[in-house]
Amino acid sequence: MPLYQADILLTRARLFGLRDQEADYPWGSPQADLAEARRLIEKHGYHRRDQELADAEAALDKRET
Questions:
Q1: pLDDT of residue 22
Q2: What are the tens digits of pLDDT across the range 2-54?
Q3: How far apart are CA 27 and CA 35, in angstroms?
């Protein structure tokens, strides 16, 4: 189940968190979702999603600057 949760966190951060209106993000913040996804990926060895996580974090960082 934690692997599905990591997938969900990544997907919603990428789909909804990278928009211009962060105020519309109903789950707290995309940064928190990506941090939790990273924690789950590292804890459970789900390194299949490492590149996707790195891409989402880079896109979010680019958006913030």
A1: 55
A2: 999 999 999 999 888 777 655 678 888 899 999 999 999 999 999 999 999 99
A3: 13
Ramachandran region, residue 45 (left: φ > 0; alpha: ψ -120 to 50; beta: rest): left
DSSP string, 2-65: HHHHHHHHHHHHHHHTTSS-GGG-TTS-HHHHHHHHHHHHHHHT-GGGHHHHHHHHHHHHHHH-
Question: Going by C-beta distance under 8 Å and a sequence separation of 6 or more, which residues neighbour residue 1?
Answer: none
pTM of the model: 0.86
Classify the phi-psi angles of 29: left when phi > 0, otherwise alpha if psi is within -120 to 50, otherwise beta: beta
